[in-house]
Amino acid sequence: MQVVLHTNYGDITLAMHTETAPKTVENFLQYARDGFYENTLFHRVIDNFMVQGGGFEPGMSQKDTRGTIENEAKTAQPNRTGTVAMARTPDPHSASSQFFINVNDNHFLDFQNETPNGFGYCVFAEVVEGMDVVNNIKGVKTSTAGFHADVPVEDVVIKSVTVQENA
Q: Which residues form the PPIase cyclophilin-type domain (predicted)?
């Protein structure tokens, strides 16, 4: 199964990791099918680290989400360049809609142990087309917006999302 993020920078195609992160994939797919990600931003961009999206609309207005999900980082793939993981707060089981694309091998984000500091970030997909788009996004100029840091100066928008059920 694949999901295409149609952004104002181009398309990014993600292959879902249904075997290693099934609950996380289903959560992401539900948000995608519901149209939740349409007109949301890549709101946090840090070159040599990651680009994060899936929770804010233009103007940095945060969207309401469904409940949080169980962290499946223990069985997930490692956080390497081009993989997609769930963003969360310091609570290991606090992920909801926000995700990030790793633009570097970020193995310090991998599962280490079942402690708040060791739980890691669950990889649930990987970029199979459009890494050039991700690389263009990672290089945008950023600033602060309110108490948010690393916010692109010009909006990077997920215009729509296509779920390819048979891909």
A: 1-163
